[in-house]
Amino acid sequence: MEHRRLGSTGMYVSELTYGNWITHGSQVEAAAAIKCVKEAFECGITSYDTADVYAGTRAETVLGNALKGRRRESYELFTKVYWPTGSGKNDRGLSRKHIMESCHASLKRLKTDYIDLYQAHRFDYETPLEETLGAFDDLIRQGKVHYIGFSEWSAEQIAAALKIQDARGYTRFVSSQPQYSMLWRVIESKVVPLSQKEGIGQIVWSPIGQGVLTGKYLPGKKAPAGSRATDKKGGANMISRFMNDQVLSAVQNLIPIAKRLDLTPAQLAIAWVLQNPNVSSAIIGATKPSQIKENVKASGVKLEASIMKEIDTAIGAVAERDPAKTISPKPRA
User: Which fold has domain 3-210+276-302+318-325?
Assistant: First the structure.
């Protein structure tokens, strides 16, 4: 496992981050989750990503238990705040109240005194940016958070936040957590250039395109039983955008390329996102340890320019590149 600096910071993260979005607390029982985390450590993964909203806060609890007994300095822990974690009017968003309360709850569930990277899970149109950024800065000054980042913010939103942070002397954002894969490239035209300029690193999610880039979904065929595409509680809605014959046929064009490089299609997909120099880490999930053992083989793989061009040709026009697709929920009002 190779490591990279998170943006322009001095903190290193593993090229692959273990994430538990739709596994811990829902798809995977606690015992299986502990086995997956153990395998991740054995494979050299030191970075672990979760969020308070995953599995209704249960994912943080499961991850906290799985990390129990590990030397705290031996791993980097990421979590996020924004989505509802209760039924109250203030149980969501990026108000100072919700950020502070959510951070303290996350610390308790994760069984730790501090969070290495605390992220705004979406942009909040209802809360003044100054309020959000001030709360994040206070958490850093209190020692409860080391670094801050955001997930799925547009370039315009990022730039506005950095301007306020600089003007007020607040600690700057250092990371972005967007969806990014061969099929979903919306960050390339605006977010990545701005991030490179401002020292922000990408920790990308869904590098395998919700599993579509494994090649297991075939054009004209029903999705395999038990797969994410058939699991209404496990991301079926998100994967649906890729479940059409045009995309699935393009993905089949990648299989010969992967075989020629002695990689699985999933390894090729992960290696592809890691070729982007602005990517600090790619998040992978797992329901069993063997999946981790296979996917970590993508770390350190170098793809020649000719291979990258061949992949672009294979995918063709099915890749989504519109930067306007980076969207946060509109105001509740």
Answer: TIM Barrel (3.20.20)
